Amino acid sequence: MTDIIKTENLTKYFGKVRAVSDLSIKVRKGEIYGFLGLNGAGKTTTIRLLLGIIRPSSGVSFIFGKQVKPGINDIWNKTGYLVEIPYSYPDLTVRENLEIIRRLRSINEKDVVDSIITKLKLGEHSDKLVKNLSQGNAQRLGLAKAFIHNPELLILDEPANGLDPAGIVEIRELLHDLAYNKGVTIFISSHILDEISKFASKIGIIHEGRLIQEIDTEKLGNLFEKRLLLNSINNKSAIALLIKNNYSVKFNEDGILEIKSESACKNPEDVATLLVNAGLPPTLLKVEEEDLESYFLRTISMKGFNI
Amino acid sequence: MRNMLAAIWAEYMKIRKSRIFWIMLLFFIFIPFMMALLMFVQKYPELSSKLGMIGTKATLLRLGEANWPNYFGLLFQTSAAIGLIGFGFITSWVFGREYADYTIKDILALPVSRSYIVIAKFILVIVWCLLLSFILFAFGIIFGRVIDLSDWSIELVFRSGYKYLLITLLTVSLCTPVAFFASFGRGYLLPIGFVILTLIIANFTGLVGLGPYFPWAIPGIYSVPSDIQLGTISILILFLTCILGLIGTIIWWRHADHK
C-alpha cells in the first residue's frame, strides 16, 4: 500500500528543548492513524511539522510522496487539516469564512459551501459572525474548513475539542465513513484515548517527543491486561481457598478481590466452581479488560518515563 | 493568477468586513476637518482667543495666510506624518491580525503560495492607503471650499494633487518593513513600536540634517518647502528599504516557524 504520510527521523528543537525526536512513521492509504500522547508530548509539533507550518531541525517528512518544504503547494490540494483550537476570522460570518477557503482552494463548485454547512450542521449559524459562535460550533467550522474540498488526507489535531458528547459521536461517525467508505487517510491526534480506540486502525504513542510504540488496533486487544474481579459471601475464606489453589489474589483499590492470571480470566467458571464447591459462592464475578487509557499510561511507565 | 486573485479577494473580504476599515475611514475624514478648522481660525483670528488651544496651535504652526496654497501645504505635511502612522497601523493590522487572531495556521498549508498571500496583502494595503489618502485629499477640498479659502484654482488643485500623490506613494512604500515586523513579532505590538521609533528617529535625523538619508524622514522632507534637496540617493534609499521589507516579509512567511 502507498504511504500517504512518511517521516524519517523528524526532529524539532525549540532552542535547547527537543520537542520531537527522531520520529519515523508511515501512514498508509485509508488508514486512521491515532496519534496519542499527553499534553506537551509533541503531537501538535509533529502535526505542524507535517503541514510545513514549522521547519524540522533535522529529518524529513513526505505527504503523497512529496517532501514537505516551502514552495511545494500542490500536496495541500488533497489535504485537509485542523491544528489545535480552530480560529476563524471573527468579523466574518461562517459562510464568508468558508467562502474564503473555497476560493483559496480553487474549488469551482460554489455549492460546496452550502453542502459542508449542511454536513457539519452549521445551517442555523451560517450567517452568524464567527466571534458570536459557541466553542463547539467554532470547532465545527474548523472541521468544515478541513473537509470542504473532500480531501484524500485529513490531518486533525484534537478534533473533538469543545464538542458535546453527541457532537463527538457524530464526528467519529463522519471520520469513520470517510476512512472506511471513501478511502480517506486520517492522521488524528487526541488525548481522548477511548475515543481514538473506537475507530483508529493504527495507534502511535508519543511521549517526550519520541514515538514509543506503534500498534495495529486489531492487535490491541491482545496487549490489554485483563483481570478477574470477584467478591464472595466470605472474602477472607475465599482468598485462602484461591491462594491454596495457586491463584494470585488481592484486594484492589475498590475493596474487590482481583486475580490477574491469564487462566482465571480465560476460564472464570473454574474459579466460580471452586468457590461454590467450597460453600463460598461468588456475589460478583466479572472479567474486566484494561482500556486504552490505562494501557497508554502503563506503557509510558514501563518505558521508564515520568507521567 | 487565479490563486493570486483568490488571495486578493480573501484579503479584501477581511478588510471590508472589519471595524478597523470604518474607523480608519472616519479618522482620515476627521484629519482634513481639523486642518480646515485650523485654517478657519487663521482666517478669522478674532475666534482664536475664544477657541483656546486650537487658536494657539494655529498661531504656533505659522500657517500664513488662510489661502489654498497654504492649506494644501498643511495637507502635504499632514499626509506625510499621518500617513506614516496611519499606513503603518493598517499594515500592522493586515499582517499582525493573522497572528493575533491565530488564523495564520489556516493560510499556511493551502495550495496558494505563501508569497501570493503576502503580495495580496501588500496590494490591499496599497489600495487601502491610496483610498484613505484620496479621502483625506477629497474631504480636504470639500472642507476648504466650505470655509471659502482664497486663491482657488483648478490648476493648483491638480498640481497639489500630483505632489500629494507622490508623498502618499513615498509613505506607502515604507509599509513593507512594518509588515516584516508584524510577521516577525507575530502581532501588532512590535510593528506599532517600530512605527513610533521611526517617527522619533525621522524627527531627530531631520534636526541634524541627515533626513535625506533616513527613509522615514524622506516623505516629510518632500512635503515641506525646504532648502534640503532630495536627490537620487534618497529615492534609492527609500526604494531599497521598500524592497528589503518586501523580500524580508516573503522570506519570513515562506521559511520561518509559525507558531
How far apart are the first and last residues' alpha carbons of chain B, in Å?
A: 29 Å
Name given to the CATH homologous superfamily of the largest domain in chain A = P-loop containing nucleotide triphosphate hydrolases
Distance between termini of chain A? Answer: 36 Å
Helix segment count of chain B? 11
Question: C-alpha Rg of chain A, in Å?
Answer: 24 Å
Architecture overview:
The complex is a heterodimer of chains A (307) and B (259). Chain A has eleven helices and 15 strands. Chain A has 307 residues and is an alpha/beta fold. Chain A has two domains: 219 residues, P-loop containing nucleotide triphosphate hydrolases (Rossmann fold, 3-Layer(aba) Sandwich), CATH 3.40.50.300; 64 residues, Alpha-Beta Plaits. In chain A, helix 2 crosses helix 3. The longest helix of chain A is centred in the middle third of the chain and has 18 residues. In chain B, helix 1 packs across helix 6, helix 5 runs antiparallel to helix 6 and helix 6 packs antiparallel against helix 7. Chain B is built from eleven helices and no strands. The chains are: A alpha/beta (307), B mainly alpha (259). At the A-B interface, helix 2 of A face helix 1 of B.
